[in-house]
Amino acid sequence: MNISESFHKIADAHPQRLPGSAGAKAVSGFIQQETATWEYQSASKKTSVFNFSVSLYVYVLLSLAAIAFSFTHPGGGLVIAVFLFLIFSAELVHPIFAKLRPGSAESLLLTIPARSKETQKLVIMSNMTTDYFNAMPSQMSNRTYLGLIYGAGFLILLLIAGNLRFKLP
C-alpha cells in the first residue's frame, strides 16, 4: 500500500475531524508515524490559540446588561451599547477577551533534508487543534456565526434606540 492509499484509508476511517475530536488526534498521530517511517524528523509542540467563544459570551452578556441599564437610563444604555459594538468589532482584529482562556493546538513540524546545496532543510508546519476552542453549530461557517452574533448586537442597539425614543416605563 502506498502513502496516498494510507492517507485515504485514515481519512475514510475518520470522516468527522472536528477540532479536539478523536479523529483529528488519530490523523495527527498517523502523520507522525508515517513520517517516522520515511526517516524524516517529525515533532509536535503545543501552541495556544485564541478562544473567540469567550469573546462572544462576554459580548452577549454585556449587551444584555446594556439593555437592562437602558430601561432606567436610555441614553446611557445606548452609549454603552455603541461602545460595546465598537469594542467587539475591534476584537476580530486585536483579540483582548479571546486571550482570557486560550485554547490549545499542536504544531506538527516535519523536517525534510534537502538535496540541493542552497537549502539545507525544509520545514513543513501544520496546526492541529486539540480542543473545542471555537464551539459553534457544526453546519455553520465562521462568518455566518459571527454575522449572527453581530447581527444580534445590532438588534440590541435598535432595541435600546427604540427604548430611548418611546421612553418605556
Question: In brief, what are we looking at here?
Answer:
With 169 residues, this protein is α+β, with helices and mostly antiparallel strands. It contains 5 helices and 3 strands. The chain has a 3-stranded antiparallel beta sheet, with helices on one face.
Helix and strand arrangement:
Elements lengths: L2 H11 L8 H16 L3 E9 L2 H21 L1 H17 L12 E11 L7 E9 L12 H25 L3
Antiparallel strand pairs: 1-2, 2-3
Describe the structure.
With 169 residues, the chain is of the alpha+beta class. The chain has one domain (3-166). Helices cover 53% and strands 17% of the residues. It has 5 helices and 3 strands. It has helices at residues 3-13, 22-37, 52-72, 74-90, 142-166, and strands at residues 41-49, 103-113, 121-129. A 3-stranded antiparallel sheet has the order 1-2-3, covered by helices on one side. Strand 2 (103-113) and strand 3 form a beta hairpin. Helix 3 packs antiparallel against helix 4. It is elongated, with a radius of gyration of 23 Å. The termini are far apart. 12% of the residues are buried.
